[in-house]
Amino acid sequence: MSTTEAVSRKAQHDMNKLHKRLRRLVGTAIADFNMIEEGDRVMVCLSGGKDSYALLDILRSLQAHAQTRFELIAVNLDQKQPGFPEHVLPEYLSAIGVPFRIVEQDTYSVVKRLIPEGKTTCSLCSRLRRGALYRVAGELGATKIALGHHRDDILETLFLNLFYGGKLKTMPPKLVSDDGRNIVIRPLAYCKEKDLAAYAEMENFPIIPCNLCGSQKNLQRQVVGEMLQQWDRKFPGRLETMFTALQNIQPSHLLDPALYDFKRLKAGNEPFPDGDKAFDSETFEPDVEELLHSTRD
Ligand code: SF4
């Protein structure tokens, strides 16, 4: 085998592995949160960015093999940003044979008119986009709206809420829309952004740049994103641990009386599953834990 053949085989092998991993993670998220059910008509929001292309591609692949039957329809909102290459998405979607709708709505001019020069325009822009997408979902009879947010978006949002919002919350994998009429799902919730970026590159998706509007990404989000990436480089596994924590919440060990009835808490004679090691500080080093266990036995 020539060196070129060996390199291309290795590239193919890596691509298959990545595709399988992403498919498995999306399949698991769908099952864990019951995101897609028999007969669903799933509207996939396609911005032209790497994440939404990957989302559509993986959902198509699951659709081809899943026992649950569901439909996919791709929707792109053409927000009339200057230089938006209108032909790219229709050409791509026609080539892969996915039904689609392109919705033209000039949110760009609205945002430019209402937001003073130099201010971040993303929140108003996203709000207008969301409204348009919900309306289209109704018109198309979609039962689910799939968005391309991934694990790193979820962690970023968690820290944004923690640092600036005074709330312990993030983007949920499944939610009911503000108007109560749509179910929004995030099937990429378990996928890492770097895997999606690598996948988009391997698949050669025709990416449309996201900064056509000329707006900077929200500065706070940028800072939090960089902080997370630094942690990922410096402390491998930290992002995974934080993400696990989001799936392992103990209201009795937080401070929200609306989630846990602290007022009526009483001591009894039975062991108490929500109990604590009282005044001990938490330790996370396995050898110390083991030592404690061995002295107890
Ligand atoms: S970067 Fe531009 S298009 Fe994207 S959300 Fe912000 S304002 Fe809207």
From TrEMBL:
It catalyses: cytidine(32) in tRNA + S-sulfanyl-L-cysteinyl-[cysteine desulfurase] + AH2 + ATP = 2-thiocytidine(32) in tRNA + L-cysteinyl-[cysteine desulfurase] + A + AMP + diphosphate + H(+). It comes from the Bacteria. SUPFAM superfamilies: Adenine nucleotide alpha hydrolases-like. Pfam families: ATP_bind_3. Its main location: cytoplasm. Binds 1 [4Fe-4S] cluster per subunit. The cluster is chelated by three Cys residues, the fourth Fe has a free coordination site that may bind a sulfur atom transferred from the persulfide of IscS. Its cofactor is Mg(2+); [4Fe-4S] cluster. One of its GO terms (biological process) is tRNA thio-modification. The keyword Lyase does not apply. Its EC number is 2.8.1.-. [4Fe-4S] cluster binds at residues 122, 125, 213. CDD domains: TtcA-like. A motif (PP-loop motif) lies at residues 47-52. It is found in: Cytoplasm. GO terms for cellular component: cytoplasm. GO terms for molecular function: 4 iron, 4 sulfur cluster binding; ATP binding; magnesium ion binding; sulfurtransferase activity; tRNA binding. Catalyzes the ATP-dependent 2-thiolation of cytidine in position 32 of tRNA, to form 2-thiocytidine (s(2)C32). The sulfur atoms are provided by the cysteine/cysteine desulfurase (IscS) system. The thiolation reaction likely consists of two steps: a first activation step by ATP to form an adenylated intermediate of the target base of tRNA, and a second nucleophilic substitution step of the sulfur (S) atom supplied by the hydrosulfide attached to the Fe-S cluster. Belongs to the TtcA family. Homodimer. PANTHER family: AMINOTRAN_5 DOMAIN-CONTAINING PROTEIN, SULFURTRANSFERASE-RELATED. This is tRNA-cytidine(32) 2-sulfurtransferase. It comes from Nitrosovibrio tenuis. The lineage of its organism: Bacteria, Pseudomonadati, Pseudomonadota, Betaproteobacteria, Nitrosomonadales. The gene is ttcA.
